[in-house]
Design brief:
By secondary structure, the chain is an alpha/beta fold. The chain is built from seven helices and seven strands. It has a single domain, classed as Rossmann fold (3-Layer(aba) Sandwich), CATH 3.40.50.300. Helix 5 crosses helix 6.
Length: 203
């Protein structure tokens, strides 16, 4: 198994890169997404859960991610959690994820945790200008997560932006490849697709 870590700021284009690779390579690629591994707090009421800062590493169940990556490396199928950004809780359902020749690990903190970073054969940072990331986030959070604009803007400047500057941007130095992605298309990810094609030939 060849493990590729995808890192980058919120709305930089990591999910777009994942979609491009999965459409191109099908069941040759498996995915572990950090967004699935936020710690669930059903003991808190909705307004309290809503205030949790999911843009800092403490919100992530690091040990569960490591355990599931290692299970996939051992050839075992995992039950990957599903986290709802509407209820701020994990859902009852899980995503059955089988091992594959290529494993993508996608998340804003994927380079921050050294124990996870060291599992990667290739580290890719998806980079986008701050104004591009903000505009994409506004559109996503309004249309997909059904959040009001005022909440999105407040969350961005109070949590997302300062946490990015502490926990994401400084770790770009660990990237083997930096892919700029300021355009809303797949063209930027062709180099990554070519690398995966070459890896698959050698596996």
């Amino acid at each position: 198994m060849y493990i590729i870590g995808l890192c980058g700021g919120s709305s930089s284009g990591k999910s777009t890169a994942v979609d491009f690779i999965q459409k191109k390579n099908g069941d040759q690629v498996a995915l572990v997404a950090f967004d699935s591994y936020y710690i669930s707090r059903p003991d808190l009421v909705f307004e309290e859960r809503r205030m949790i800062n999911v843009d800092e590493p403490a919100a992530i169940d690091k040990e569960e991610i490591i355990r599931n990556i290692n299970l996939l490396r051992e050839g075992k199928t995992i039950q990957q959690p599903i986290y709802s950004f509407e209820t701020f809780l994990r859902e009852a359902q899980t995503i059955e994820t089988a091992p594959a020749p290529i494993l993508l690990v996608d998340g804003i903190f994927s380079f921050y945790f050294e124990e996870i970073r060291e599992l990667f054969d290739l580290k890719v940072f998806i980079d986008a200008d701050v104004d591009v990331r903000l505009s994409r986030r506004i559109l996503r959070d309004m249309n997909v997560r059904h959040r009001p604009l005022e909440y999105i803007i407040d969350q961005y400047f109070q949590k997302v932006k300062p946490m990015h500057e502490i926990y994401v941007e400084p770790y770009k130095k660990y990237a083997d490849i930096i892919i700029p992605h300021n355009r809303n298309n797949d063209q930027d990810f062709r180099i990554l697709g070519s690398i995966i094609d070459n890896v698959l030939k050698d596996l």
